[in-house]
């Protein structure tokens, strides 16, 4: 897919949160039994509980482990993201194909509740060399995905996806470059 049509580039996920990377795993997310598509619009009531997550990479034969990070780069508002990136969920040691519920939940899921503007909620997946000890940061606000990946030698992401969300009854739209 050309970078001009890649939803991660169009949504400024590449650049704001991660550098460009070649996707080498498949990330599937389901909220309430419905599969989320990258860049979709979801309401807070639709994402109140953690999604079902499936990560696969057929080339590795089911022996890989993954780390999943969920952040809001638009907190508290897209016009003033002073808490960028707000950490909503962190799960490590997810066995390939087993789902996040089989991993180690380091930071519990906090449901998105944007108060101003349209927020992007981003899921980033890293392949781990082996199960490893990863510790919860002391805060959720101002988490930095790039620094986190460097600290734990996770390398480049292998998959990512995001959805847009605004408060129930909110209005307005996001304009992309």
TrEMBL record:
InterPro entries according to UniProt: PEBP, PEBP-like_sf, PEBP_euk, Phosphatidylethanolamine-bd_CS
Protein name: Uncharacterized protein
Lineage: Eukaryota, Viridiplantae, Streptophyta, Embryophyta, Tracheophyta
Taxonomic source organism: Urochloa decumbens
Similarity annotation: Belongs to the phosphatidylethanolamine-binding protein family.
The organism's place on the tree of life at top rank: Eukaryota
CDD domains in the cross-refs: PEBP_euk
């Amino acid at each position: 897919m050309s970078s001009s049509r890649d939803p991660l580039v169009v949504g400024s996920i590449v650049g704001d949160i991660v550098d460009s990377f070649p996707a080498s795993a498949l990330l599937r997310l389901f909220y309430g039994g419905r599969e989320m598509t990258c860049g979709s619009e979801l309401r807070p009531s639709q994402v109140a509980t953690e999604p079902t997550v499936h990560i696969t990479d057929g080339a590795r034969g089911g022996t890989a482990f993954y780390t999943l990070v969920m952040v809001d780069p638009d907190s508290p508002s897209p016009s003033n993201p002073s808490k960028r990136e707000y950490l909503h969920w962190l799960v490590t040691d997810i066995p390939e194909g087993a789902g996040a519920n089989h991993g180690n939940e380091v930071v519990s899921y906090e449901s998105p509740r944007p108060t101003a503007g349209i927020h992007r909620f981003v899921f980033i997946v890293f392949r781990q060399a082996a199960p490893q000890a990863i510790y919860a940061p002391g805060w959720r606000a101002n988490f930095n995905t790039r620094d986190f990946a460097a600290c734990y030698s996770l390398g480049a992401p292998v998959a990512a996806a995001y959805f847009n969300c605004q408060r129930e009854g909110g209005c307005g739209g996001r304009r992309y470059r």
